Amino acid sequence: MSRKRRAAPPARRGRRALGSLVAKLIVLGFFLVLYLPIAWMLTMAFKRRVDITAMPPRIFFTPILTNFEWLFVHQDMIWPIIRSVLVALGSVGIALALGSMAAYALSRARWWRQQDIEFFIISTRMLPPIALILPYYAIWIQFRLFDNLVALAFVYLAINLPLVIWLMLGYFRSIPVEIDEAARVDGCSLIGSFWYIALPVSKGGLTVAAILGFIYTWGELFFAYLLTAVNKTVPVALASFMVVGLDVRYGEMAAAGTLAAIPSLILTIIARNSLVSGFRSLAGLR
Amino acid sequence: MTDRRRRWSGREEKPRLLLLPPLLALLVVALFPLGYAIYIALHNINVATPHIEPVFVGLDNFRRVLTTARSVNAFVNTFNYVLFAIAVQLVLGLLIAVLIHRSFSQRGQAWLAVLLILPMAIPKVVAALVWNVIYNPLVGPLNYLLSVVGLRPVAWLQQPGLALYSVAMVDVWQWTPFVVLILLAGLEAQPREVHEAAEIDGATGFQSFLFITLPLLKPFVTVAVLFRSLEAMRTFDYIYVLTGGGPGITTETLDLYGYQIGVAEQGAISIATAAALLLLLVTIILSTIWVRQMKWGAEP
Question: What ipTM was predicted for this assembly?
Fold first, then answer.
């Protein structure tokens, strides 16, 4: 298709500017739809019931804190929060320790069937939770581990460990082997060079892995819902809002949702740059 | 091969102590339950009657899953949910990614990327609770918007033919940003020269998009679609909170079906596990395609 070469005439330039404006408006609309539900929840958390059910929706209202108060006074919301934090910290902590060990070993030596080992690790991340949860449910009932938080953290290891190994493998591979070798020449043991060189250098990777693991575990409903009864975690406590009955406490529910969303949002903002580049490597770019 | 370059030079010492414990842990937490799942699926076990000795039934549970109307319904629902959610996410994601790429500066794009990540961080339960209010026929803002335009209220989550897609729209809301981010990365990687050459040759913007941008974007589309469908196939949170599988069983996907039949209603854990393993099979096939696409292990 070879035609005459042409520079953009003024009319076309004008059309381009218009096109760019339309494009920006569409993108703006997309982000509005993306953020309006979140804004809706945030405002609902501070609204009285009459303000929530008012039609048309009230944009201006007198904010109240009774929704949050109700959560802690009547619902003991503090306990699900403590449980969720403990389960997440325990599971992510162990995953970080074991995962970085495996990732370092995989990045620093060539193993028998290395690619198969790596593929096995990644593939466990792709297991549908339902295929894991039913056997766990059967085993946990049999061994009276049902409703046990340590057992729940153990189950989350199945998700968090491959995640950490995968992330840290990328980080360790990006550290030049020469750095370790220099340490080895200076008399550092293999484990020593892992502990004193590789780990400190990849603090950023460890942080991202910890944050992603925490966000996942903090918000996970399916496993927690099936494996706990009294020891509800935050997502289970949230879901139980729906089963209370017809009279849903919208304000209180929004307050609980806000509480549950805030830690994840803050952590995401902290790790934003690594996460964006994480998406790039997910897309196969380096 | 990069492996050779990164190997310890000279020394053939392998940190077995570092690799074995994590691998063992992974075997215990992930592979052992999977093995047990196969055992459960091949036997006739009911958690409601633990005193009855499990009987080996071969593939009978799989046969029952594939011939029972309710489990077939669950497969069909899962399939419809995934197909609808992913199709909408892909079209919308492609549109937004292209628009962002064309009309925002590098700095602007960096900001938008952060804004795209945030909604994904919100726990799915929370997203479902929010949308439950938005869809609410009485206090929900969505029907209010309809009434402003003069339309009649819609029972988003109560109407049998509609509920599944209403739930899928929550998936669309929370995960379209994922597709946008992947495709944005793909657009950035495209060589500028090709597009310039096309423009010099007189290609219109649309032609250049259709014949250059899209084909170059194909591997990124594959990644986005496979990741998203693997995730969407295991939707529990949205459906459990928004409809609980109802009305009737019209929104009962496989995860919910497995939960209902294996745990909540009948304790028929063998049949539920057989259904889960069939889902796993689909997952394996999809991941294999993904691995092929990504040429796992072969670095450029």
Answer: 0.86
